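Teaching assistant here, posting this on the class forum so everyone can see the example we discussed in section. The complex has two components, and the goal was to see what a joint structure prediction looks like when all of them are supplied at once.
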Amino acid sequence: MSAELYEREIACDVLVVGSEGAGGPAAINAARAGLDVLIVSKGKMGRCGASQMAGADFNLDGRSAIALGLPGDDRDSPERFFADLVREGFYLGNQRIIEAYVEYAARNTADLLEWGMPVYRFEQVHAEEMARGIITSGVRWVRVLRRKVREMDIPVLEDTMMVDLLTREGRVIGAVALDLRSGEIVLITARAVVLCTGGWQQAYYFNSAAADLTGDGQAMAFRAGAEMIGMEMVQYIPATMLWPPMARKSILPYIMMETEVGPLIQMLNGEGERFMQRYDPSTLEQSTKEIVAIASEMEVQEGRGTPHGGVYFALKHLTPDGVDFVWNKFTEFLDQNDDKRSEFRKLLPHLLETAKTQDLEVGNAVHFMVGGVKVNERTETDVPGLYAAGECSGGLWGSVRVASATTQVGAQGRIAGEACPEYVKSVEHTEPDKAQLEAIVERINAPMQRREGASPIEIMERMHGVTDEYLRVIRDGEGLENAYDELSWLRREEAARLHVSASRTRRLNYEWQLCLELENMLLCLEMSALASLKREESRGGFYRRDFPYTDNDRWCVNTVISNRDCEPALRLEEPVVTSMPPPSGRMTFEEAVAEGTASLRRGEVDEP
Amino acid sequence: MTHPAINVRCFRFDPETDSEPRFQDYRVPLQDGKMSVLDCLNHIREHFDPGLAYFKNCQLGFCQRCSLRVNGKVAMACETPASGDLVLEPVNANEVIRDLWCKST
C-alpha cells in the first residue's frame, strides 16, 4: 500500500470507535474473550462524549435489583419491565432488542458495581410506577470504565476522529482516522468494527450534548452500506437553560423539576401566564417531557415566548425564603448524591440567586437520538463485521425513549463485545482496496487543498438555521419539505466544496475537522427530514401539527433508510414482535400519550 | 441594543512555523446575559478567526479539559465569567501544540 496515503498503520482484531458508556464495555468484553482490541476516541477517555454529562441513572427491574442487593420492588419483574418499554415506546421498538436490553440491564449493572461505580440511591426515575433507577454520576461512571480499560491495558488512540470505514466484498475490514493533534492519517485494519459514537446533536443549534456528537458513526455506517432506522425520532428535553450564554444547554432546571422540589416550580410564557394550565391542567409542569416540550414550543410559535425564544422557569412567585427552601431541599438531594459536578457547585447557586428576582429563560434542547444504525439484538448491522452499540444504533426505543440511555449503552456495549469474537475468529485480516482507500484520503484532504469554496462556519450557520426553523418539536409537511430541500442542497452542493480558509496547518485545525463533521451532520439531518416527512402521524416523541393523531392502522411501522447509489432510499418495515402484538385503531395524540404512559402517572400506583 | 465590548488578548503560537509566540487582540461584544471565557473564544472563532486553536467539549464543567491562564490565573474557560478585558494564555507555554492548546490539554 502506498505509504504516501497515510502516516501510520495499526492492525487489531476489533476496532471500537468511541471510548465511553458503550465503547468501554464493548472493548472490555471483547478483550475478555482474548481479542486484540483498539479503542479510538474523538476526545480523551473519560472526558468526552455523551456519557460524562449523564444525570446519571441506570434502569433495572425490581426483581433483578433485589438479586444484586438493591432495594427493588418484588412486584416488578423483567417481563413487566419489557412490557412497559414496548407499550411506552408505542410499539415501534424491536422486541428482541428490548428483551436483550432488559436481560443485559442486570448484567451491565453487575459489571459496574463490581468495577466500583458508586450507587447513591435506588428510586423512581422517568416517572415509572415502581423504582427502577440506580442513581449515580455520569463522571464517576466514565471514570470507572476508564480505570477498567487501563487495568486491562487496552490501547486507546485519543483525540482521533474516525472518518470512514473500509470494506471489501461487502464486509467491513477496517477504517481510516484523522489524528486531530498531528493531522496524520491513520489506517486501521480490523476484523470487526464496533461503532459507539453517539448521536448527531451538534447539527442543531440548541442541544444539550458535548461537541463530539456529530453523527460520525451513522454517516460512516451509511456510506459503508448499513441501514438506518427511526431517523425521524429525535428526543427534545424541555426546561433546558437558554439564557444567559454561560448557562446555555444545562439541563439543571429540568433535573430540578424531576426532584422533590419540582411541584414548587412554575413555567410561564412571555406574558407571565402559567401556560401548562391550558395543556395539561391535572399534572401541569409535571406532565410528560414530550407534552411539556410541545406546549413550550406552541407558546413560542404563537408569539408568547421570551426574548430569546423560550419560556420562563419561575421561582419568583415564592418569597426569597421560598427560594432558599428550594435551595436547601435541592442541596440535601445533592448531598445524598455526593455528585460534585461543576453544574451543581458553581452554576446552580448562581441561577438560584438570580431566580429570586428574575425568571430564567429555558427551552427545548435536542437531547437524544432515538433512531440510528439499524441493528439486531446482537448489535449486528446488515454489513458483516460492523456492529453498532448505544445511541448511534436504532431499533430499541421505537418512537420515544422511556427509560435510561445509560443502561442502553452499557448493555449494548457488552452485547457487542460478546457477539463479535465469534465473527472475528471466522475471518482473516484483509488488505484494503487501494481505490477505496485513495478516495477516502482524497475526501479527507480535499477541504485543505481547495483554494476557494464554501466556508465551513457559514455552512454550519446555514444548517443551524434550517434545523432551528423546521426540525423542531412541532413539525409539519411544508416545513419538512423545505428542510429536506435545503439540507439536500447543502449536502450535495455546498458540502462538496467546503474549504479551510484560515490556517492550512494540519495540527488542531478546527475548520478542517468541521468540514468532515458537516458532511456527517448534513447526511443525518437529511435522513431525519426524509423520515419525518414520510411519517404522516404523531407518535411518542414525534409530533406533526398536520397529522395530530396516532394511527396504528397505517403507521405502526418503522422508517428504514438504505444506501441506494450513495443516496438515502426510504422504505417502511413492520416492527419485530415476539410477544406483544401492536394495537389497532386511531386516536388523538393526547389520547395515545395518556394510554401509552398510563403507568407513568405520578402518585397512581396500580397493583399488578 | 448594543452592549459593551471587551478586549480579548489571545496567545498565538505555532511552534512549527513561528519563531516566537505573539498576542492578538479581538473586540468581543458582551451579551445581555453572563458569558464565559469559552463563549468569548467561540465568538472569536466564529466571527473573526476560525484558525484559533483552543479546547471546547462539554461547555459545562464536566470534561475539565478547557483550562487556560485567564489574566494569569489557571481556570476552566467554561466556568469563568467574562466581565472585563481578558488576557488568555495556555497553561504551559513551553508545551504548546498550537495557540491555547497544550500537550497536556
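For the discussion questions: The longest strand of chain B covers residues 5-12. The interface with chain A takes residues 14, 16-17, 31, 33-36, 39, 45-46, 49-53, 56-65, 76, 78-79, 81, 97-99, 101 of chain B (CB under 8 Å). Think about how each of these relates to the inputs above.
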